[in-house]
Amino acid sequence: MIHGLVARPLVFTLDALMRYPMVSRMAFVECGGNSAPLFSKEPIEATVQAIHGLVSCAEWTGVMLSTLLEETGIDPKAKWLIAEGADSLALSRSVPMTKALDDAMIALYQNGERLMPGNGYPMRLLLPGWEGNINVKWLRRIKLVETPAMSYYEARTYAPILPNGKAYQFYFLQEVKSFITHPSAGLKLNGPGFYEISGLAYSGNGRISKVMVSADGGKSWAQAAMQEPVHAKAFARFRAPWRWDGGPAILQSRAWDEAGNVQPTRAQFIAERGETKTVPSVTGFPNQHYNGPTSWGIERNGEVKHVYA
Amino acid sequence: MDNRHRSSASLLDCAAVLIALALTSSAAFAQGPNLGKPISPAEIAAWDISILPDGSGLPPGSGTPSQGSRIYAEKCSMCHGANGKGGLSAALVGGGPLTSGIDTPKTIANFWPYATTLFDFTRRAMPWPKPRTLTNDEVYSLTAYLLALNKLIGENDVMNADTLPKVRMPNRDGFIVRFPERMP
């Protein structure tokens, strides 16, 4: 249902929604805590999956939320809406109306199939480019309000603590990020020679405009080729040819998005956001919203390790 | 009524009917299928458990820390430990200064900006295996108990729709908006 600061509170059944105009788009959904192992003061030895795996990309199909909101008649006093899911803890998040009216979707299909139970069947709120938690699954109720509710996950969980003891709030955005998936930690190269470095880049701000790749820990860079088409707020695959001479090497990628944002260097990121004083568990989630670089060290025997550079 | 009064009354009637027609005419609706079904305030009330930091949405009811202590022992301590010290689930008392590290555990006392969040979350999500089984009085009582445990209210303070939003949490001013230009 949609209610609150509206002229006409309405219930939209699944049967009704199936008759509404639908759109399809690619979008990644990334946990706000993805990549959190990189807050560790020392590199945690783990695979790219363990470090960056809390993200996916799919084609989403559904009804634009703006279509439904127009039908209810939005009260101009409404600056936020509260979206609530039907999971056991009735997860509830506050969304600015600007985002709700921009590209928010009531998603019914994922990759052309009805949503899986674990992905929010029968419908979820899709907010392209925004932290996973706010893409409320099993969506059941939307309430238009004047101020944010400051519910549990927004008041507490997704508010990253800063080095000075303050915390960011209303982060929302998953910023530009990239990482090399091959070669990556845990894999082993079979001797020197030609390899294709490959990885993923994405940004909550729009399209990836450029990815640069380095094999010497960031001293020199070459531009990677992008797999076309490059979609906004979706995974972009990048590839770069590399000749490994058999010596130690450190692979790193760096991405830019079309809004002009770029991944910070590790030094820049840590200066602003800090790092932990002890090494946490790889599943520890010490902080949220990391988008600095990822470095893979290649040893002479071909083993790939997670390093900092 | 004299004729003059009657004609101005009917003019007003006409105007009222015309305005009503204008509001309900198809031009006022979106161009979509318009398949949303109206829902009554009574039906909405059965579902609306949203609470705002100013206390809007808080239901009738009340509770005290000592009432909450009994409910806590029976329904909460198996996961959250005796007196909120933690166990299978997070501790609900204490919490170090946030300046001790970016991974400092966030607690009710050291982090939560609003006490209403505690009521909202407890009512919608707890107990974990049986959410939405607490009465509103029980939620107020548990909220009072946890706030008192954390020395944020007095041992005998009553929590209700009026007093709860007035509780000032220590970290209320501890936040910076990340992207101010994107805020409403």
Could you walk me through the main structural features you see in this protein, from its secondary elements to its overall organization?
The complex is a heterodimer of chains A (309) and B (184). The longest helix of chain A is centred in the N-terminal third of the chain and has 8 residues. Chain A is elongated and about 70 Å long. In chain A, the strands form 4 sheets. In chain A, strands 3, 4, 7, 8 and 9 form a 5-stranded antiparallel sheet that branches. In chain A, 12% of the residues lie in helices and 35% in strands. With 309 residues, chain A is mainly β. With 184 residues, chain B is mostly helical. In chain B, 37% of the residues lie in helices and 5% in strands. Chain B contains 6 helices and 4 strands; from the N terminus they run αβαβααααββ. In chain B, strands 2-3 form a two-stranded antiparallel ribbon. The N and C termini of chain B lie far apart (53 Å). The N terminus of chain B is likely disordered. Chains A and B meet through β2, α3, β5, β10 and α5 of A and β1, α5 and β4 of B.
Topology diagram in text:
The complex is a heterodimer of chains A (309) and B (184).
Chain A: E1 2-4, E2 10-11, H1 14-17, E3 23-30, H2 48-52, E4 55-64, H3 65-72, E5 80-85, E6 92-96, H4 97-102, E7 105-110, E8 113-114, E9 124-126, E10 139-145, H5 152-157, E11 167-169, E12 177-182, E13 193-202, E14 208-214, E15 222-223, E16 225-226, E17 236-244, E18 249-257, H6 266-273, E19 295-298, E20 304-307
Parallel strand pairs in A: 1-10
Antiparallel strand pairs in A: 3-4, 4-7, 5-6, 5-10, 7-8, 7-9, 12-13, 13-17, 14-15, 14-18, 16-17, 18-19, 19-20
Chain B: H1 3-24, E1 37-38, H2 41-47, E2 62-63, H3 65-75, H4 77-80, H5 116-125, H6 136-149, E3 159-160, E4 175-177
Antiparallel strand pairs in B: 2-3
Biggest sheet record of chain A: 5 strands, antiparallel
| Integer-rounded radius of gyration of chain A | 21 Å
The chain-level mean pLDDT of chain A equals 98
Question: What gross morphology of chain A would you assign?
Answer: elongated
H/E element sequence of chain B:
HEHEHHHHEE
* pLDDT < 50 stretches of chain A: none
Give me the strand/helix succession of chain A. EEHEHEHEEHEEEEHEEEEEEEEHEE
